[in-house]
User: Fold these one by one.
Assistant:
Number 1:
Amino acid sequence: MKSLFLVIVPVTLLIVSGCKSERPELSKPTPGTSVSTSDPGPEKIVVPEKPKETLEAPETTEKEMVLFDGKQMGQWVPAEYVEGGKVELKDSMIVIEKGNDMTGIKWTGPLMRMNYELTLEAMRIDGEDFFCGLTFPYGNAPCTLICGGWGGSLVGLSNIDYYDAANNQTCTSRTFENGKWYPIRLRVTSDKIEAWIEGDDKIIDFETADHKIGIRFEVSPCKPLGIATWRTTGAVRNIKVVRITP
């Protein structure tokens, strides 16, 4: 009698345990492999095909772009997370509902890759983790600004020299309240990545020389520009990008 086997692929998850601490061992359901029953010969395990890579958005020559005006989704689409929550336009904001584990949106239009400032407002509606994982281009390399990770307070860049936001020199913390809008400003130049939260509160000031810039693989569905949440419902609005002179 033939027997049926299910191959479960372990997945390392995104969440980190805080500055300079060990990351927890977490797991989430992942589609497994299946057994072909049409072959009369020996049993064969069918390995799912790797998702095809989509072309990244082209670079723009515009000096200023409104990426979200509150009236329509425009060129934002839901990021391809297997168990992601719902993404919807509501009350002039994009609501990114809680997923298992992540939900996100991805920008599919033209973008700026260097010497730009991106501004937006973000809010944690429900949950206790990051409500704005902003993945952005640094030249041809993506990077992610995490706001409110690991218990709701971690802020940092992920990844720097292959270390995520909880384990590199950009790691810091601050309090975020549910139901409150936080203005976020990100500045990207060839020698620095900087970020401000709530106006003059500069929370990232990182010199990029001699460092490797990257992302964790879990945010790949959002690259080169996107926003994700982790087991949290968040919202964003007033997204704009302007070209700057470094």
Number 2:
Amino acid sequence: MKRLLLFALIVIILSACTRSQTGEVAVYTTATPDVNAIAAVEQSIQQVIQNESENALAFIVAKISVENIHISRDGLYAVGWLIPIDPETNIPVAIEPGLVLLQKDDTDWRVWLPTTPGWREVLATIPDEILSERHKEVWEKRVGAQIEAAQPAAALTGYKLPWEAGISRYLTQSTCHDQYTPSGNAHYAFDFSTYGELWNIYAAKGGIVWLWKDDIPTCYEYTCSDTQPLGNYMVIKDTSTNPVSYQLYLHLKQNSIPAELKVQGTPIAQGQFIGNVDNTGQSWGHHLHFQVQVPLYGENYYWGRSIDIVFDDVDINGGRPRLKSSWCDDEAYCTFPGDVCNDFRATYISQNTIVEDGPILIYFPFITR
């Protein structure tokens, strides 16, 4: 019996040890992370999600549950699943989860969401003990290999500023979104405002209604962003682009989306009214956050990045509004390949012609004899 106990003890000690490339032996006190370690990982992930809350559809239209967290025995790497939860039903959305990757940097966790640049490179460094080679191959094929392939070869065109023709409004942010969102997921987003005013939003380009929300009340305090993680929005799906793209209009006024547009698949024409600007969700003052994004893989729109677009009615930078001010220096963040930041202006005049009704669909039934 003593021999059996001694043998079992030796096996346990050996299984808790590993040899480094230098030949030194590292001994781990436990192969199973404790509750506090898992909680620290989840807290780090949720903090990054909070920071990225208006830059990926997954974080805008759903709550995110972090599941299946695994931490390496040396405590330097971790992985987890991001599960979108329908905020209305509190039921997980039936899609593939997002894989989040983490690496310990001194005492802090660095987090790579599926939408974070560099995710693919970090995936290759994750130890097999927490993500097997087979699973890494699956994720590489599902996401990694398609991250670059999913990006359009050139800026998407055909957009007009999302307000009525002849009206001038302010640009308050463009590429300088990066100063608040280091991942770059909002690099191609635009914030438009008419300081303190609420105004009508008209579709920058046609498509079909995909997602919407307008039940969040107006925020009259700057601290509302702490209690309104999800603001009001309209998402328009555009199948005319390659790949399929999604237009996001964020921070809309409560109950301002027309009732007839609250049906998924409803056609929308460029210049059609879709709602009012307001101050809801992660917002500081009345403004419209507008961006176009494409999925990272397939048509899984939950995980995606903003992409470069140009407006037909913007006469600088090939159609790209840019700003240089005391609070936003777009030029300093104009670092992505293909970025254009040669000219800067605070105000822009739209040429978006208002249309009263959406496009008319004509159906040709099959004729049988």
Number 3:
Amino acid sequence: MPNPPTYFSAWGNVPIDNDVRPFSMLNPEGSDTNRNNRRHHFISAVYMDGFADERGRVQVYRCEAPEDPHSMNPRAIGFERDYYSQKLPEGGQENHRFEDLWNTIETVWPETIRALAARRLSLAISFNVLGMQTIMRARVPATRDRHALMLEAKLRNECKIGEEIGTLPPEIERYAGQFDTVPVGINPHETLLAMQGEFKDIGNLCFRLGFEVLHNKTSTPFLTSDNPVCSYDPRQSIHARTPYEHSGDVELIFPVSARMLVRGSSKRGPVNVLSRHRDISDSRKVRQLNRTIAQFSYRLTIGQDRTSSDLIRAHAAQVPTITTDVRRLGKEIQIICRNVFGPRPTLSPYIDTPEKAARLEAKMAAASTKPDSASG
């Protein structure tokens, strides 16, 4: 009998484990070329199902109003219109390429979760869990916004240098003297392209970590969020923690359901695989893990119930983001980015049509005349 086809090169050589298929066996190309999927989830709805209550609903806490959670269906949250769409050179846009890729992992997620709950271990199970972990690190707004902030800092400083040496392009000379404040919208296509580097980085990190599955035996369910893959130096206290600090010891946690969480550690082996199941019966330990999950959330924190509301409120004002430090040597610039917990950034919208540009120009002109009007 011929082997089933695979679509991920060497990564596809993962054997089936009973009823758990490795996601690499599924073709990421959609069969219906006429689809026009425009509602793109950046938190997988099938992933969120693992945190739903008996009514199939989750408690959703928005970072700007954590005191006011809402009971919602997972399919009604965690999405944006055209979030993964790409403009085509010949016109129009492609709407489902990334969604198809996510779908290969999401399709096998329910069978993978059932296998984890049954305390099974296999290469296929590990492959699917680490695959979901990878896309839930790379596809989310926290990651894409971080890349947008880096690109914004680069563009602002290139323009400032151009102004100093007299090489500004004519179309942006009008913004001279305003490059610290003028809105800079980054083409979303650039942050989509950056996901490839994120896939590689999280894959490399997994080859430093050994993984285990923690089963929650307490009455407090695990939280999750729109940025559920949390990695840090476990030697740092939570109040002095730097997000994504991977230079020394590393711990990674990834909640996979209200009752299960994957934990990776640079002190465990073998690497890049789930190697054991363990129970947690101490509610204080569950609370500690939930505090970290709340700390890494970006726009939304999600719970099965409201037992961890105080933790969510305590961390709502700070999110994982970056600061940038610009160093210059003549015409060369070097931008040093540091991961920090700080206020969630507000990104400028990308201006891709003359109509949007005209509206922005009018808004900026109105703002610039207000002080004169007041003084007159």
Number 4:
Amino acid sequence: MQIASFDTVLELLKDLDPWLKSLGIKPKNDRWHEALKTVARAREQRLRIERGDKRQLVPNYIPGLFDATEVHEIFRAFGTDNSPALKDKVTRALSGPIAPLSEQPNNSTARNAMFELSLAADWKNGGARVELGEPDILLYLAQTRFHVECKRPFYDHSVRANIMDAASQLRKELEKPGSENDYGIVAISLSRIFTKGELVCFAPAGEGKRIIRDALEEMLNESGKAWGLGQFRELYDRIVAVVFHLASPWDINGERLIHLSTADFRSTGKNAKGWEVLSNNLPSFY
């Protein structure tokens, strides 16, 4: 959880374009820039309200906040990096429709890449060593390498299939020469299912973390059986965990933006040694 004022997020406007250029990406009116403009409009509206003016509609306010808080965390994690793998993921993340309701499975590449970047940023900002590439993320803990394959299901009923697809991809990676001592993690974002891109957490200070944790727990309790929780017999024996991730923007009184996220790591029961390394060395990110 990272607290950022509107002004802090808008500081990105000074640094974002030089960073994109260092990656070899030409800045344009893409989804990230539009998100930052949304924050600027929201700040201006707050100032007008304080002067006694009426509240006016800010287009794409909720998704704009969500994208802006994620961009803030990604930049905080990777703002000094200019690797080819980062360039590829950022290029994909910049594309796609600005309005979440315009997103469909056939144009969801951008927000899928955003999940990969955001999850890696969570871990890197929390103090872990991460690398981007193929698989989506490499996580290093206690001199042990974990291959992480990320999926962002579009529908509730497709979560199970996404887990199995990610596991299949991880098996291929883990069977490659040089990966004999590595482990795998399947990472599933539930944000698209939960928020539909149009939900923001409006809660007093101190309440947001509880609310989103309760929401994730409720989703897992209601749909866990259908998603195959506790039934990972079909997974490859070095895939040690499935992590379910949920994120939402949190607006406190229109004054502070918080990138709110939580995760639930579930052991597959396939490899006790790998799970022990993961559970004993993963920093407390959430």
